[in-house]
Design goal:
6 helices; globular
Amino acid sequence: MKVLAIIPARGGSKGVPRKNIMKFDGKPLLAYAIEAGMESKKISKLVVNTEDKEIAKIARNFNCEVVMRNSKIAGDQSQIIDTVLQTLDYFEDKNQYFEAIILLQPTAPLRKGEDIDNAIGLLQSNSKTDAVISMVKVEDHHPARMYKIQNGILDNLMPEYETQNRQELPELYLRNGCIYLVRTSALKKEQSLMPEKKIPYIMDSKWAVNIDTEIDVIVLEQLLKKWKKQVS
């Protein structure tokens, strides 16, 4: 299976400015996605897609190919699917075709090449599915503990489990942002990284972090030390 790995890295970010090049343990955040992609044995091509010249330079310094993003799809409201399709078009114009794409977001950095290869293996062995999405088990923030507020009144999302002990709650899973692996045919047909037919790749929830806020930065700085000891 020919797999194109795309690392999307915009220059702009409101929550954490310039987060994709912020340094963690001496390396830019972007580098962790590049290194995981390079560790993979099943990725056919690895690229960073960006509109930002500094990010492009950093990616090339880590020996990663760069596809420059059209500025029209680089704004805060831009959809990631447009970036993926632009990257596919770029290579198809060069007569390079891929059976699947895998999105490796820099903001969810705690993944290994082994995780990528496991996910690709799942897609290869499940011909009836169109995608593999990385997930973690929901722990403390279970929807049974969540509420909508309507006209000042609390409305529980799962009222049948509102008073149940944690051990009695149904197992639920949350996307952790590490891996979105989709067959190219389904991606184009459904115009989505989350097609109808998809299966999970379960990862350890203790490493789940996605850099959107300053608090996430602090969490990653602490988690990274422990994570590196585990994978070394």
